[in-house]
Amino acid sequence: MSGQVIDVADTSYLSHEQDNRYRLEIKICDRIIQRYPYHYQAWNYRSYLLASVGRYEAAVESYRHTLSLKSTEHRVWCNYGAVLEKLEALDEAAKCYNHALKQAPFYFKAQYRKSKNLHRRALYGEAIVSYDQAIQLRPDFYKVWYYRGKAMLQLDRTEQAIASFNKAVELYDGDGKVWLVLGRTLLQVHKYQDALRAFNYAIQLEPDNAGLWSYHAATMKAQGNLEDALASLEHAVALDPDESRFWHLRGLVLLELDQLEVAESSFTTSLKLQAYNYQGWLAMGWTLQKMGDFSRAIEAYDKSLAIEPDQPFAFYNQARCHARLGQDTWAVEHLRRAMSLDPNIYTERAHADPLLQAILHDMENDDSSEDLEEIELITLDSH
User: Fold this and answer.
1) Where among 53, 82, 97 does a domain terminate?
2) Hey, CA dihedral for 239, 241, 243, 247, is it positive or negative?
3) CA-closest candidate to residue 60, choices 92, 27, 34
4) Residue 8 half-sphere exposure toward CB, CA atoms < 13 A
5) Which of 44, 16, 17 is nearest to 29 (CA)?
6) End of a domain among 97, 118, 150?
7) How open is the CA angle 185-189-193, to the nearest 5 degrees?
8) Which tens digits make up the pLDDT trace of 37-85?
9) Model pTM?
């Protein structure tokens, strides 16, 4: 019984029949313990069964009693640590894994769980060292390469992370989650063809995963394949119509395809699902502006700025919309705000913008007049 090793990642794998059998066996262990209170094997197996049916707090107490009877079994320490992790007692769990490794230095499961424990505690450098030690014990276990790669990402060691993910899929190519993370990492470093290959593998494994289709679309969009990107997003919104992000990305693709009315509809759906999204309102404003609906565009930009106030792009385009509506005073005010937030980009852009050149000229005249008044006041004060 001491050789039983717990996998407490998920108890839902138990069938109803299995769950009932385990609960019956717990009662049998209880009867044995009632008769023989120091029966180590009964305590150990009872602890394992309690953890297996998701009764983690009871399992912790049971393991403590088990270890009070015999504290030299490394698998028991490892199982105890795994149960403590389910209760978020990460520091205590780490001590358990160290106990296990002290008794059995080459015990892979303890080394692997220690690595993941360090990872969960955001000790990424130590986690990588521990993952490397686990790899020495079992180099063919793909998950250790996968989690090592994720720890690498936390330290911005992107190329090493990609190499680790590639090793994981080389060892086992049937886990869509690994292909997804590999693809997402490759997308971030603009390796679009490799990213697309990874997403295609992931989709073959999980064709009903809406998130995968959205990343596939993002990769297509980055390559300029807008029609293919749109087709992937149609899959995504069909699979998960309540995800705001998919409708937003669909709107961006439609915007680039110059299908403005359909883009507006997609952004509307996205904002109905998630109204507190400044990028969504910004995209809506830009779409309405391109459609020539300047008043509604100004309102959309206002909603974006209410969420995220310091957006020179929004202020600049509000200035253009006000100028289109002949509202020069408001155009000047919004252009000032844009230029104050990012003077390098928006001063140059305004000078090159025929719509705003006259307004900019008026602004400069107003500013020089104010400077002259200040000079005159100083002169008067000096007498």
Assistant:
1) 97
2) positive
3) 92
4) 29
5) 44
6) 97
7) 80
8) 999 999 999 999 999 999 999 999 999 999 999 999 999 999 999 999 9
9) 0.85
